[in-house]
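Closing statement on the zinc ion sub-project.
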Amino acid sequence: MAIYVNQLGFYTNDKKHATISGCNGYELINQDGQVVLKSEVDHLTLDESSKEEVAFIDFSDITEKGTYYFKDSDGNQSYHFRIGDDIYRQVSLDALKMFYFQRCGMALEEKYAGPFQHKACHMEPVSVLRKEKEIVDCCGGWHDAGDYGKYTTPGAVALAHLLYAFELNESAFDTEINIPESGNGVPDLLNECRYELEFLLKMQKENGGVSHKCTALLHTGFVMPEDDEPAFYQMPISSLATADFAAICAMAGRVYEKYDPAFTKRLHVAALSAWDWLLKHPSLEFENPAESRTGAYDDCCDADERLWAAVEVYRITKNDVCLEVINQIFEMRLSYTALGWKDVGGLAAMAALTAKEGTFDRFITERFRNAWLDEADRLIKVAEANSFEVAMHPYDYGWGSNMTVLTNAMVLCFAQRLTGDDKYLQTAMYQLDYIFGRNALAISYVTGHGENAVKEPHNRPTIVDEIEEAIPGFVSGGPNKAPCDPDALAQIPRNTAPMKCHVDDWRSYSTNEITIYWNSPLVFILSFVNAKK
Ligand code: 9MR
Ligand code: ZN
């Protein structure tokens, strides 16, 4: 019936797997039309996520560079893919450049943005919600997603993914990506991240607390950002935002020190005053104002955010209060590997495990390390149990499931770093295979990359800019077994297999939107994969 394969392809000397569905044989054909491999498949098993009968194909022995495709025993062709050592080069650059395209508060000039140029947006100072007379400058930062809002917690999490990519694989970021700051002596990843950090610094109030978001009251219509008229507001402080902010400012201060010690100082002063606010406000503080209909990014537990902040702030201050907070939170049952916008225990673990030896006592580091390796081993088992080799259960396909796939791959990459064992990186690469087309819809979830890539993401500029192509390098949210937008509901029949609950339709915000924190894990993983070459 079909063969699903990573449409970008495979490194010459790596393992090469694909997934065959509903038939019992295949041929692999090269660019000269020659059959280079022919094989039968004798055992298909029912896969619960796709509800298809599948098996995996191993063609690792094929090492000649070139373009290939499969033909299955029913005569159906797969999409084309390459074998070569530069298969991830362009997508790595585009996935990072995505953040430039999300910039708010400046014109995207043609020399950097090409046809996707647009005028400056959201330049006006904004009112603080319910304190209309208090006017503040909130210009800058990245639009969160297909909407134009700017939210603190997802911003901090995306920054953490990117800054860890840089800290762990600096050499993967020596290519400029043609942004206004390129050539200033600072790697472009750091230039791009600074754009968001400068915005986040504007979200901090005098008492150290940090505003949860800066958005309009409602999601806007389909207009270019510069035509978006409804006023933005700086919304109330939340403990979630304040803790994530403390953590990311502490971390960023460390990363930028070599380039700009004055910036480090600003970041660290901000981190410490946010930390101070957290100590004075020990319980969860979050309220999405009733009049606000933009994303809530709500979360009923701020312990993981506080844990991340405590670990990062301890790295600067070595203050015992941080250790007390860490040990208190250890009493709770939290995930120490979660890397999404809501649960950030994994960022706390990474902060502890990348610190200089001896910074934390063994009790703390062992706890984080063991939790990390347990989770990485679990992910390998989940991946090994299905022929897509994707570390997902059917119930994992919720809104933004591609973030789950990609953050799982981050866990695997970092496990490889902790242990030196390449089996983790290998399974991480199978997760990339899934993202780039080895899935039951045979779709590459990254715009512009892959023969059958997502074409119509829910991203306002892409919808209205009258340019045929989407901006390349954007990760779509992916299948959502409980879609909630009318177009997905109309187009996805009930009982559709979880892995197939996706529509490449610009209206489908619950299956086909883009966000900064779905791109940032891709940048992270690609930095590991590129560092390998
Ligand atoms: O990514 C978020 C997803 O995990 C939630 O289930 C969903 C509903 O709360 O919200 C998603 O985040 C959206 C945010 O609220 C507003 N900007 C677009 C985000 C991506 O769809
Ligand atoms: Zn804007």
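The longest strand covers residues 52-58. With this model delivered, the sub-project is considered complete and its resources will be redirected to Aim 3.
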